[in-house]
């Protein structure tokens, strides 16, 4: 079986898992048990960090990202938790950028990994929710509307513009497996109004579904806007 390597993005989180004290680990688990799932790891980290004295929001965010990567790996490989723990522990041991573990420290690290993976609460739901939201051929990443005035001239150019039309260029940015891309669509005032109506209708549909979920007592995951 191919040995795992810790991606650079997740090394700060695994370093936290190795070095934090036992009290902080307990505070993290308690905070995660109480926290609601979120589609933004930053929001979840803000909630958890408010209940953990020893770590900053940024450190908690690094740690949560590392843990969610483990949930994703476990689901992808479809192997038991203990197998993931063994392989991640060995990957940390082999990584020169991460602390070198003694035999006792290695056992404690594996115990921590298992504890975070086995309670299977907010981290599992958040992991699956993020995957569902992103499991598309293309993902919207941004937009911008550029507005132009385009003069209309008669044959005698010296008379100046005879009229002006207004054109709105809608820029859509998106990401796919090949990277980030963009395209432009020209809109007039009628197009803008139609687009506005479609967006308002989509928003109303979302609110209607949210009310239905509330009546069925099914949690609705949203971006939380934590202050």
Question: What layout of secondary structure does this protein have?
Answer:
Layout: H1 11-19, H2 22-34, H3 41-49, H4 57-77, H5 81-94, H6 103-118, H7 122-134, E1 139-153, E2 161-176, E3 179-187, H8 189-215
The value of Rg in angstroms is 25 Å
Q: How many runs of DSSP E, i.e. beta strands?
A: 3
Mean pLDDT: 88
Portion of residues in beta strands equals 15-25%
Question: Helical residue percent?
Answer: 40-55%
How many individual helices?
8
> Numbering strands along the chain, what is their spatial order in the largest sheet?
1-2-3
How would you describe the shape?
Answer: elongated
Order of helices and strands: HHHHHHHEEEH
For the biggest sheet, the summary is: 3 strands, antiparallel
- Alpha-carbon distance between the termini? 45 Å
Uncertain runs: none
The class by helix and strand makeup works out as: alpha+beta
Task: Describe the overall structure.
This protein has 227 residues and is an alpha+beta fold. The radius of gyration is 25 Å and the shape is elongated. The chain contains eight helices and three strands; from the N terminus they run H-H-H-H-H-H-H-E-E-E-H. Helix 1 crosses helix 4, helix 3 (41-49) packs across helix 4 and helix 4 crosses helix 7 (122-134). The model has no long low-confidence stretch (mean pLDDT 88). Strand 1 (139-153) and strand 2 (161-176) form a beta hairpin. A three-stranded antiparallel sheet has the order 1-2-3.
């Amino acid at each position: 079986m191919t040995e795992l390597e810790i991606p650079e993005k997740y090394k700060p989180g695994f370093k936290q898992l190795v070095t934090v004290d036992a009290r902080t680990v307990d505070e993290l688990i308690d905070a995660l048990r109480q926290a609601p799932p979120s589609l933004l790891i930053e929001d979840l980290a803000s909630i958890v960090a408010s209940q953990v004295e020893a770590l900053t929001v940024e450190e908690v965010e690094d740690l949560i990202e590392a843990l969610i990567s483990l949930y994703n790996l476990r689901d992808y490989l479809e192997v038991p938790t203990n197998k993931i723990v063994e392989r991640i522990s060995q990957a940390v041991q082999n990584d020169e950028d991460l602390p070198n573990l003694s035999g006792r420290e290695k056992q404690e690290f594996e115990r921590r990994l298992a504890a975070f993976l086995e309670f299977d609460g907010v981290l599992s739901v958040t992991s699956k929710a993020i995957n569902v939201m992103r499991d598309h051929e293309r993902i919207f990443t941004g937009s911008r509307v550029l507005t132009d005035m385009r003069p209309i001239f008669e044959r005698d150019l010296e008379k100046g513009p005879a009229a002006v039309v207004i054109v709105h260029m809608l820029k859509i940015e998106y990401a796919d497996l090949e990277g980030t891309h963009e395209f432009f669509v020209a809109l007039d005032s009628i197009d803008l109004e139609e687009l506005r109506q479609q967006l308002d209708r989509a928003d109303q549909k979302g609110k209607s579904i949210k009310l239905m979920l509330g009546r069925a007592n099914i949690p609705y995951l949203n971006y939380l806007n934590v202050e």
